[in-house]
Amino acid sequence: MMLLDASWLIRLQDGPIWKRVAETERTYCRSNWWANVLYVNNYFTVSEPCLQQTWYLATDFQLFIVGLSLLALTWRYPKLLKPLLAVALVGALAVPAIVTYVNRFEGVVILRPEALKYVLWYDAMYRQMYIPTHTNFGSYLAGLIAGLMYHRLKSANFDAVRHRGFLVLWYASLPAAIVLLLSAYIFYAYDFEKPAIWIAVYAAVAKNLWGALFGVLFVGVAFGVGGFLRAALNNSIFRPLGKVTYCVFLCHLFVIRVTLGNVRQPIYVSDMRIKISTKKKFNLFTMDVPAKPILSEQKPKKHRWNRELLQDIFLNVHLYI
Q1: Which candidate, 42, 205, 193, places its Cα nearest to that of 108?
Q2: Is the keyword ATP-binding in the record (predicted)?
Q3: pTM of the predicted model, to two decimals?
Q4: Beta carbons within 10 angstroms of residue 107's beta carbon
């Protein structure tokens, strides 16, 4: 993807804003590729990113190194397990709170128009709170603790299905996560005075509680709790979909640039426009998929397209949309 953005992207479209869309990406990928290769692009070259979405890979890689080191220490020195986890937990709570308070941040990341103008390159909260490893350690730590708990409970023949306390905690985890997500509304609706201790506490708790709640959820699923949810999550279709989503993650900004980078007039974005655009794409997809086998059967012997059939199909698609 770096090679593609650094070479062919600029040649794929044109328009009044295309150079700003593609030239910046080409320049940054040619000059700052090293940050992506070393997985440090969540700290370096943040304002001149190549493949901006891959900050997540850098953060995840760094968290993996920290987590692996932590587990290696606890495996070599089992008595250090509880002290190390306690120190890590305190740090995971304290760091987001301190960063939020010192920088007068909101409790959640708010996408403001002035920040989106440059795709968050210069947004302080994005740079100092959203993408750094030290502010995202809490959720990764929650996953490590969940894995350790699962290992120990499984060794102790823990029966989660019959344990009332665990069942209450498990069934409360998903609603609590939804409430936590919706609670961010207050920061969009009101402008609170900052810095504020309660905002710093909220930011720290929200950053860490999200991972803890889903840790409980997945431990329960691993022990057989969940019924339909467990059956759905264990469906084999998620194996190929998991690989596809990673490909989409790497490619989606390239597709967005090529699709929208050649606009020649301002676009007014409203709920109705989004609905109409979504319906158009859905209709085109539902017409295209059934049409492919039909077109295959209608091909001439020399495997050339039947021009009249194609014209009729695309005319019908256009009218249907």
Answers
A1: 205
A2: no
A3: 0.81
A4: 23
Angle between helices 164-182 and 197-222 (to 10 degrees): 140
Evaluate whether 226 touches 220 at the Cβ level (below 8 Å).
yes
pLDDT tens by residue, the chain, 321 residues: 999 999 999 998 888 889 888 999 999 999 999 999 999 999 999 999 999 999 999 999 999 999 999 999 999 999 999 999 999 999 999 999 999 999 999 999 998 888 888 889 999 999 999 999 999 999 999 999 999 999 999 999 999 988 999 999 999 999 999 999 999 999 999 999 999 999 999 999 999 999 999 999 999 999 999 888 888 888 888 888 888 888 889 998 998 888 888 888 877 778 887 788 777 766 766 665 555 555 555 555 444 445 444 444 444 444 334
Domain limits of the chain?
A: 55-234
50 and 9 Cβ atoms separated by less than 8 Å = no
- Alpha-carbon distance of 277 to 227, in angstroms, equals 37
Residues 6 or more apart whose CB falls under 8 angstroms from that of 40 comprise 58
| The pair of three-digit structure tokens given for residue 149, joined into one six-digit string | 């708990």
Nearest residue to 98 (alpha-carbon basis) of 192, 183, 195: 195
**Length, in residues, of the chain:** 321
Assess contact for 109 and 129: CB atoms under 8 A.
yes
Q: How far apart are the first and last CA of the chain?
A: 33
Q: Which tokens sit at 72?
A: 């290696």
